[in-house]
Amino acid sequence: MIGYIEGGILQKNDDRILILANQIGYEVLLPTIVMESLKERNIGDNVSLFIYFHQTEKQPKPVLIGFNTDEEKDFFQHLITVEDIGPMKAAKALTVSVKDIAGAIESNDLEKLQKLKGIGKRTAQKMIASLAGKLDRFIVPEPETSRPKHLQHEKLIQPVLDVLIDQLGLKPVDARRRIAETLSVNPLILTPEALLEEVFRAGPK
User: Fold this and answer.
1) What would you report as the CA-atom Rg of the chain, rounded to the nearest whole angstrom?
2) Beta strands in 2-115 (DSSP E)
3) Same domain assignment for residues 148 and 104
4) What are 142-159's pLDDT values in tens digits?
5) Which residue among 58, 65, 110, 117 is least crowded, i.e. fewest CB within 10 A of its CB?
6) In DSSP terms, which residues pair with 48 in a beta bridge?
7) What's the pTM?
8) Which residues span the domain enclosing 76?
């Protein structure tokens, strides 16, 4: 099974690209958010994509769906667990960032979800019913590359989440939102203690 491809762009179309890797051309379907990120790339430029490999009895022809990050692929795999959302429909629905879709699901924002391509009211309701409470980790941005490597993302955030959720009674999505807002203002916070202090200082919004 193919999980990752790195190679040069042979061809670009509206919703897919052809990648040459080890003298083999792979046609990869790209969600809108991924295609947008590659719009400045030209034929011959190198790209690297995490791949979701889709092949079933009903879909005997293999389909490769590409993502910029493992996180995008992980979110996609959550999305296809929703009733009536298969891989092709899920790929078409990714017209805005994973963070925005996860936020809409966690905040029960039906109107925002219905703006996704191919998602109607009933499907949006199923997305919320199936995934609410499971996606809050996608709302927090990835750590800045300037952070020391020994400070892993969850090691910085998890102790603060524990305090906000277990001791102060915040909902997980609200706790992560406050942490994300704090880190966006000061991305160089290095310790959970400093992060918690800044979250308290900022206060609820």
Assistant:
1) 19
2) 4-12, 16-21, 24-29, 46-54, 63-67
3) no
4) 444 444 433 445 677 888
5) 58
6) 6
7) 0.68
8) 70-136
